[in-house]
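seq as requested:
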Amino acid sequence: MSIKRAQEVLSLARSVVVFTGAGVSAESGVPTFRGGGGTAVWRGMDAMQLSSARMVGEDLKLVWEWFEYRRDLLARCEPNLAHLAIAAWESRFPEFTLVTQNVDGLHDKAGSSAAIELHGNLWRGRCLECSSRVPLDMTPHVEIPPACRDCGGNLRPDVVLFGEYLPAESFEKARESAGRADVCLVVGTSALVYPAAEIPLVCAQRGATVIEVNPEPSGIGGSRSIMIAGRAGDVLPLL
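struct tokens:
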């Protein structure tokens, strides 16, 4: 019944926001540590410390070794049916916005062309000198830290590290889309991490219908939400 209700709501929707989290990519084999890290400890060091802004200043080479380990894990992962369904929805609605907390690049790989990546992307570097963003498709790099092709400065992973704020431009763009949405799909995330969790709340406060697809729905959208318990790869193709 929940799936049927969701189908009916989507059939009338003109502006749709999809908000995804780690659960979507977990179905592709991506470890659910923030950004796909794999384990809480690596080489005897805490993963949160290795993924911190402070560590970039202290030992950038070690940070890159850690992120290269993570990128090697991700290189073996492929988009699943949920990623593919979301990519197909771009042409289905008059206005469609994909907002993701994931940094693994699987939405891009599935064909999504304009995902708002609130936490960045592991397949890019950002220059510490000139702030240029550089695609980093290969792994491992011959030399780390890799050099900026524009100025020769050192690159850091272009992801939001612990101790850093979300990129203001991306977050505001996501909020603006949420403020226009008729429907918000929350997929593979409990939406408990702020400020990213504000996106479905903005939709709900505007009066949009929130459809939550999670193994254990949290009810993030309130009493008007449609909660579908299940795996994203099973549910989204049905919608």
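Residues 34-38 have pLDDT under 50 and may be disordered.
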